[in-house]
Amino acid sequence: MPAVVKSLFAAGAALLITFAARADVTLMAARLGAQDVAALAKFYQAAFALKEVNRLEFRGQLEMMLNFGASVDAAKANPNAQVVIMHRESDAIADPVPHLIFNVTDMSATVAAIRAAGGKVDGEPRPFGNSGMVIGLATDPAGNRLELIQQPKH
Questions:
Q1: For position 38, what pLDDT does the model report?
Q2: What share of the chain has pLDDT > 90, as a percent?
Q3: What is the mean pLDDT of the chain?
Q4: Which residues of 40-58 are buried (b: 16+ CB within 10 A; e: fewer)?
Q5: Based on the structure, what is the number of domains in the chain?
Q6: Which residues form the domain of 20?
Q7: Using CA atoms, how far apart are residues 42 and 75, in angstroms rounded to an integer?
Q8: What is the Cα–Cα distance from 53 to 67, expressed in whole angstroms?
Q9: Which residues pair with 52 in a beta bridge?
Q10: In whole angstroms, what is the distance from residue 134 CA to residue 126 CA?
Q11: How far is CA 61 from its chain centroid?
């Protein structure tokens, strides 16, 4: 078998293995940091109705896991990705790229809930081009950035 054919066959096999290995990969959680983990968890509970599904403490550092659900039991049973809040030394973060992105059905109500829970809305939500989507940006009390997306209404 010519070397070129062997190389192509090996490259194809490597790609198949790579894609097959990723077939069972799902997002488990998104992690945020805060100096006061419990206080930030209360913000997410108030602003987004997340429920606490687990809590760990290791070497005096608290980590809390939150998820969506009508009750704590429903949130614990929810297989979707969780929001995990862990301790960090400072809430002074400058990088605007890392953030959570939420789908919302009522932008105005979500913005009001964020403000009422102690978050800051970064400008008023606005249409995203001609897509029909409305985009909002906010910051939680620990400085973590949030993006809110309201899909077009059909």
A1: 97
A2: 68
A3: 86
A4: bbbbbeebbebbbbeeeee
A5: 1
A6: 3-150
A7: 15
A8: 7
A9: 66
A10: 5
A11: 21
Q: What is the CATH classification number for the domain harbouring 47?
A: 3.10.180.10
**Mean pLDDT comparison of 16-25, 35-44, 90-99, highest-scoring range:** 35-44
Is 87 or 3 the better-scoring residue by pLDDT? 87
Q: Which residues contact 108 (CB under 8 A, 6 or more apart)?
A: none
State residue 23's pLDDT score. 57
Chain position carrying tokens 């979500």: 110
Q: In 27-106, where does DSSP find H-type helix?
A: 37-48, 72-77
Q: Are 104 and 125 in contact (CB under 8 A)?
A: no
* Residue 146 vs residue 94, higher pLDDT: 146
User: pTM value?
Assistant: 0.76
User: In one letter, which amino acid is 137?
Assistant: L
Burial category of 1 from C-beta neighbours within 10 Å (exposed 0-12, middle 13-18, buried 19 and up): exposed
Question: Checking phi first, is residue 32 left (phi over 0); if not, alpha (psi -120 to 50) or beta?
Answer: beta
**pLDDT tens digits along 69-91:** 999 999 999 999 999 999 998 88
Residue 129 carries which DSSP code? T
